[in-house]
Amino acid sequence: MRAIGVFGGAFAPFHNGHLRLAIEACERLDLDQIRLIPTAQAPHRPDSRVSALRRIEWIRLAIEHERSLVADDCEIRRDGPSYTVDTLLELREAFPQHALVLLIGSDAFAHLHTWDRWPQLLELAHLAVVSRPGAALAPADETRKLLSRRRVRSADELHASPAGRWLQFEVPMLDISSTRIRRLLRTGRSVRGLVPDAILNAMTAADTAALTQDDDATTH
Ligand code: ATP
Ligand code: MG
């Protein structure tokens, strides 16, 4: 079965860790495309001071030359909190012939049980989980039971069904987080090499001011 990758996040800002994850997932999991979806109203964290429109503009700049990566504004077009399960429901309708593969880092995976209607995520999509520095890759107690019999070891096994399997895949780890980028900006330091040049070159003083006002929501 052909499959599409779904990769959501605050992306405040989008960075090279996100970019490599998307590219490697696309190639290694044999996905037709990856849809990059910035949250508009994140349920678990304060919204970024950078507007969702600006954050998706950054993604567009970063992926201009990547034909398999697509910026998707579906959470920006929707009202209310940006629940991933609603995004998957929308994508299921838009791509009835494709399986969906939800890409997440191990930090997000550890909190999967806190996501709205989380068991439904597995009815709508597969999960591909990538290790992230500082976050061991393991399901939480709450999700272990549902996930234990659904684990597969290869992309081929994912492609054998439309949804409901999960797999761990390794990408050479990049210890980059948006939190660290915001911290560096706050102290006036360079973030070149962490953020795609196309984004950096388009970043205005107002962007930097907004990013540095964001609450640091994570421990990275
Ligand atoms: P913040 O520090 O603001 O939380 P972040 O770097 O964690 O930013 P998010 O927008 O929160 O980025 O993350 C979106 C998704 O990307 C999550 O699934 C997260 O686990 C994953 N991710 C982010 N950075 C990396 C990285 N360096 N390696 C692997 N996965 C990553
Ligand atoms: Mg994060």
Count of helical stretches: 11
Distance between the termini: 36 Å
The CATH class: Alpha Beta
Number of domains: 1
CA gyration radius, whole angstroms: 17 Å
Q: Kindly state the mean pLDDT as a whole number?
A: 95
**General shape:** globular
Distinct ligand kinds: adenosine-5'-triphosphate, magnesium ion
Question: Order of strands across the widest beta sheet?
Answer: 3-2-1-4-5-6
What is the CATH superfamily? HUPs
In the predicted model, the low-confidence regions spanning at least 5 consecutive residues are none
If you had to describe this structure to a student in words, what would you say it looks like?
It contains 11 helices and 6 strands. The longest helix is centred in the first third of the chain and has 13 residues. The protein has a 6-stranded parallel sheet, sandwiched between helices. The protein has a single domain, classed as 3-Layer(aba) Sandwich (Rossmann fold), CATH 3.40.50.620. Helix 4 runs parallel beside helix 6 and helix 9 packs across helix 11. The protein is α/β, with parallel strands linked by helices and 220 residues long. The model has no long low-confidence stretch (mean pLDDT 95). Helices cover 40% and strands 15% of the residues. Strand 1, helix 1 and strand 2 form a beta-alpha-beta unit. Bound molecules: adenosine-5'-triphosphate and magnesium ion (MG). Adenosine-5'-triphosphate binds next to helix 1, strand 4, helix 5 and helix 9.
